[in-house]
Amino acid sequence: MKKIMLLILLAIIITAIAASDIFAIPAFARKYNMTCKTCHSPFPKLKPYGDEFAGNGFQLKDQDAPRYFVETGDPELSLIRDLPLALRLEGYVTYNQGNTEQSDFTAPIVFKLLSGGAITKDVAYYVYYILENGEVGKLEDAWLMFNNVAGSELDLTLGQFQVCDPLFKRELRLTRDDYYIYKVKPGASNVNLTYDRGIMLNYGFDSGTDLALQIVNGSGIGEGFLGGNFDDDKYKNLMGRISQDAGEHFRIGAMGYYGKEQNELTEGINGSYTTYYPQNELWMLGGDATITFDPIEINLQYVERNDNNPTFLYNQANPIPEIATRGAFAELIYRPNGDDSKWYAVGLFNWIESDQSDLNYKTLSAHLGYVFRRNIRMIVETNYDFKKEFATFSVGVVTAF
After folding, report:
1. What three-state secondary structure class fits 348?
2. What burial class does residue 107 get, using C-beta atoms within 10 Å of its C-beta: 0-12 exposed, 13-18 middle, 19+ buried?
3. Average pLDDT over residues 203-211
4. What is the torsional sign of CA 355, 358, 359, 361?
5. What phi and psi values does residue 305 have, to the nearest 5 degrees?
6. Cα torsion 32, 34, 40, 44: sign
7. Average predicted confidence (pLDDT) for the chain
């Protein structure tokens, strides 16, 4: 253990020295010539101003960027002068990952190539290509957003996005540990609250009420199916969410999800084949809240899920057992000096309980970060798995430029 700790310390020192020579500002900061602190605290976590910026189609209401587009002499043509690009890199030294009792260099474990911005007034795009865990890369977020449709407060997003985005955005969390209730898939179901393809409508009221409605395939974002379709059945799934601000320090929300999915099953008896199309009907209900009293922020999420046939069995004689799943996470973020904090700390508790026992999950994570530069974070994180009774430890760096 002494050798391992010495190795980790050496990795921190080497990373810090290398990072000190990096001059890096992400694409949006380059466009508007301002610090990442304007929108993030610390990156990638968004402040309210950053949330407003993203919801406004990556445009600042109080600042225009006239040189962002090429002057072509055609008022009906909008061409971005310089394609906005940014990179994100994450690398860690870990110990006992997966209860292996091994130390490991996992650098880089995440590489992202990101691009996004306003194509023209009230039309924006966002896309990133990710290579993770040494696997072949893929597109995850990839969407177009039409802001203030017909001069209203309605926003329309079309493409690939995370179903949980109106709740808590997984890509903006500070911890390596995830929000696991969003990732649950009982049986052979393809449905969860992470990536999917579809449309999303958002509407905000001056009263602090926000509404979101999603219509999605319910098939995730894997490869296409037969016939060139990305949806593997005839159904579309719905997710709705309402959120209300209650003063400056409290926000509460509720969500509901309903969907169906269908599989194909072929059985052969004495040379005769019959094709069945078993279905899984599912629903989810959840509540979420954010409590903020500087320097502390608390984020809470609960989700109850029911699937009536996630294993896609077909049996007319016997009833098929349903699978009920429930889970939650609680996240506490501490920034002693608010936006100017060099140090911050995060605690994250995950809990899942399901009729499918292998989905049961309970972990506690403690994360300590140091903002070396606005776009360079040094982190130390430890996670304890209560079910399997083991702890993991990691230390590393997250940077974007």
Report:
1. strand
2. middle
3. 94
4. positive
5. -130, 145
6. positive
7. 85
